[in-house]
Amino acid sequence: MRYSSRYSDLKVIRRLLQFLGLITCLLSGFASTAAPETTPYNITRDLYYGDVTGPDRDLQSLDLYWQSKKDKLPVVIYVHGGSWAFGDKADVHNKPDFFLSQGIAVISMNYRLRWDYRIFDQAEDVASVIVWVKNNAEIYGLDSNNIILMGHAAGAHLVSLVATNQSYLKAAGLSLGDIKIVVAIDTVSFDINRLMIELGSFIERRQHELIFGSDEEIWRQSSPIHHVSSGKSIPSFAILYVAQDEATKLQAMGFAKKLNAAEVEAIMIPGNEKTAQSINKELGDKGDIPTQALMAFIRAKI
Predict the structure, then answer these.
(1) Suppose 200 and one of 32, 161, 204, 281 were both cysteines; which one would form an S-S bond, judging by CB atoms 3.0 to 4.6 Å apart?
(2) Which CATH number do you get for residue 79?
(3) How many folded domains does the chain comprise?
(4) Is-contact 236 301, C-beta < 8 A?
(5) Measuring CA to CA, which residue among 32, 10, 159, 144 is closest to residue 91?
(6) In 3D, which of 196, 205, 187 has the Cα closest to residue 251?
C-alpha cells in the first residue's frame, strides 16, 4: 500500500510539473517573439548537441548568443532550473544582453528532464555541451579555454556536480581542467544527505525523494559536496544564494567551506533582499549588486 500511495503521489506531481513546464514554455515563447529584432549580437537557436534522430532531440538542444568578432569570446553555458523536471532554455532572462556587453558569449541549454531520464543523464548532457563548444569554437568565435558553467536551482546543482565529479567529463573525453569557472545560483542541493536529514522542509524533502529516491548512497553520489577533494583540478566557484533563506545559506556555507579546505577557490555572494526567483532573474540588471560582485570575480579569472 505504501508503494501504491507513493506511485499515485508521483503521478499527480508529475502531471502538475508537466503542466507547469508547458505553461513556462508557452510564456517563454511569447517573451521570445516579443523581443526586438535588432540585437547587437547573433542568436542561433535550436542547435542540437545530442542525438538528432531521437524522439527527445529538443531536450538536447541549445541556443547560442554570440558575436562575429576576430577575437574569440569566453562563453557562459547556462543550465536552467525547474526541479530537474521542467523548464526550458528560453528561461535565460537578461543574461545574453548583459554578458555579451561584457564580451562573453552565452549558451542556454535544454537537457533531458527527470521522470523519463536520470539525474546522471542530465549531468552527461552538461558535459556534452562542453564538448559541443570545443567542436564548434572556430565556427562561432568561442574561446573554449574560458568556459563558465552557470546554473540556477536544479541547474546550479547539475553544474556543481559535473564540476566536482570528474567521471562525467572523463566519459566525454574531457577533464575538470576544461572548465574555468562555475557559477551556482541559489541551490539547496549541494548536500542532499544533509537536506534530507537536517535542513530541508517537508516539501523540499518530499521533492528530493521523488527525484533522487530514498537510497542514501544515491543521495551521496548525487551531492556535489561529497565529490570535493584536493588535487582534482576542480575549477573556481562563485556561489550566489538568497541571504534570508537559512537552508540555502547553510548549504552554500558548507559547500564553500569544503571547497576551500580542498584548496579550491570559492566565494559566496549573498543576495540580500532577493528571492529564489529574483536572484536569478535580476542577474545582469543595471545596479544589481550580486552581478557586480560576480563580474569582478570573473574578470579576475579570464
Answers:
(1) 204
(2) 3.40.50.1820
(3) 1
(4) yes
(5) 32
(6) 187
Residue 250 CA, distance from chain mean position = 19
User: Do strands 42-48 and 61-66 pair parallel, antiparallel, or not at all (unpaired)?
Assistant: antiparallel
CA distances from 221 to 164, 229, 238, 256, 258 (A): 11, 14, 22, 18, 16
Cα–Cα distance, 257 to 275 (Å, whole number): 23
Residue 26: inside a domain: no
**Lookup result for grid cell 574531457:** 174
Domain-embedded: residue 13: no
Residue 33 scores a pLDDT above 70: no
pLDDT recorded at residue 69 = 72
For residue 2, pLDDT beyond 60: no
Radius of gyration of the chain (CA): 18
Domain span holding position 97: 40-299
Q: Give SS3 for 89.
A: coil
Q: Which three cell numbers stand for residue 28?
A: 517563454
Identify whether the C-beta of residue 253 lies closer than 8 Å to the C-beta of residue 223: no
Amino acid 287: pLDDT:
95
Q: What is the DSSP letter of 85?
A: T
Residue 145: beta bridge partners?
none
Answer yes or no: are the C-beta atoms of 144 and 137 closer than 8 Å. Answer: yes
DSSP secondary structure letters along 23-77: HHHHHHHHHHHTS-S--SSEEEEEEE-S-TTSTTGGGGEEEEEE---SSPEEEEE
Does a structural domain hold residue 56?
yes
**Is residue 7, in this structure, part of any structural domain at all?**
no
Bridge-based pairing of strands 142-152 and 181-185 is: parallel
pTM across the whole model: 0.87
